[in-house]
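User: I need a structural model of Trifunctional enzyme subunit beta, mitochondrial from Paramuricea clavata for a docking pre-check later this week. Nothing fancy, just the predicted structure tokens so I can convert them on my end. Input:
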Amino acid sequence: MDDLIIRSFLMFILLCFFLVLTRHISTSRSNNRNGLKGSKTKAEKNIVLVEGVRTPFLVSGSDYKDILAHDLARGALQGLLKRTGCPKDAVDYIVFGTVIQEVKTSNIAREAALGAGFSDKIPAHTVTMACISSNQSITSAMGILASGGADAVIAGGVETMSDVPIRVNRSLRKILLSLNKAKTMGARLGLLSSIRPKHFAPE
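Assistant: Understood. Predicted structure tokens for Trifunctional enzyme subunit beta, mitochondrial:
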């Protein structure tokens, strides 16, 4: 893997969290058409970027090797709250982008939010869109704000290359699933005896 690819992977470790607030602006417009006067009031939302934080860039397999992705996200969330002084209950929604999802923490936004001390009543969801996942999370946050679904949203992205989920061979998965359903010891032993070295080749 060349340096360019490694650097692009390191970019995934970046955690940019944006606390976005909205304020309502009322404008009045007067139109003169055919000698008739009319006024129109339009409520517009001004979406504001308040602050951003990130964790340090590190080479994969180094100081972050024992830290899971949602732990990185949790630390960034806590850092954001500390920097802004924003109370947790002022946040209406949390959205994250990620590429390589861990089965145990498929909704990494939710896991990070709970770990950072946010209420379980604050909704959170995770988006994935390859290398622009974090950008998509910001776009999603803006959509939530623009539609009036929230007044304050935290958006960001998280990735770690220090603990990439490695899938076992599909043929081995089939054996293991069958093993789980086997009723007798003989059936279990028969399945176990069918396992060969080729079954351990990762997909």
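Before docking, keep this in mind: The radius of gyration is 24 Å.
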